[in-house]
Amino acid sequence: MKAYRISHGGQIDGLQLEDIVERPLEPYEVRVRVRAVSLNYRDLVVAKGMDPTKVDRPVIPCSDGAGDVIAVGSMVRRVKPGDRVAASFFPHWLEGGPDRSKVRNSLGGDVDGMLAEEVTLHEETLAKIPDQLGYVEASTLPCAGVTAWNAIFESSDVRPGDTVLLLGTGGVSILGLQLAKAAGLRVIVTSSSDEKLARARALGADVTINYRATPEWQDEVLNQTGGEGVDLVLEVGGQGTVTRSVASTAVGGTIAVIGGVSGFGGEVNPMTLTLGAKRMIGIYVGSRAMLEQAAGLVAGTGMKPVVDRVFPFAEAQEAFRHLESGAHFGKVVIELTQ
């Protein structure tokens, strides 16, 4: 069996294809033939050595993958050979809220992930894929889809007609756009590309703002909301955007802090939160139950997660570089044909 491995901080050039000898299954383990793996910004963070869950050995990268069950341990009851499944980002966070024990491991971080021809996982890590979703589509959901789901449906109290602000057109933002529109929300999207903004409008974005043409984009957000601000921001930018995101938020609104594409850090004056009764909450992906719910909504509404480009397994480094370039709109996926 072939799998990619990378050391934390090994850079994209350090992503190497290796032959792996598979071990026998433990009683509650499942072997999955991987059909598709989607990439996240977090995979670049691991490659650059910036992920906080560092380990001193190479790992199989990537948290997000989908495939077929090909073998099960003697005590497995949740799945059977032939089932189509996706893996949850956190193997131990099955449902409910997070705690230290639930987020102690993450696929592709401190334990082996999905960028392999076959993977071995505990049965509780797996969620069945609805029949309406293909492997490529299903592979987009475990990190980006669940993160957007958590921010919109679990960690805020937005209702149909409320307004959501999405920064950029990467995986979380575009899946967030699709989920938000399915829930009847008004959506504002920012990007530096007019072409990408046009594509966002085609997906249902109500307002688009080019932040290069409008550097003080928070003022335009306020203008587009009658001076009120948005009810929810999916804050993926980090230190370069968080202050503007807070300024864009309505009284009583929520800033869901997800990532740090522009770097981690930045300063937020606590008084701006206090005087606006605004809430800032960290979103650390989510549970298996959230993955199942997100997949159910996507399948039930006929939604098709936006995939920017699909690379073959042999071109994994090229896929990582495409993600790093920032040229993508939606998800970057690696497909395995076996």
UniProtKB/TrEMBL annotation:
Give the GO molecular function terms. oxidoreductase activity
What protein name is recorded for this chain? NADPH:quinone reductase-like Zn-dependent oxidoreductase
Task: Outline the extent of the Enoyl reductase (ER) domain.
Answer: 10-334
Q: What range does the record give for the signal peptide?
A: none
Q: Which organism is it from?
A: Desulfoprunum benzoelyticum
- Where is coiled-coil annotated? none
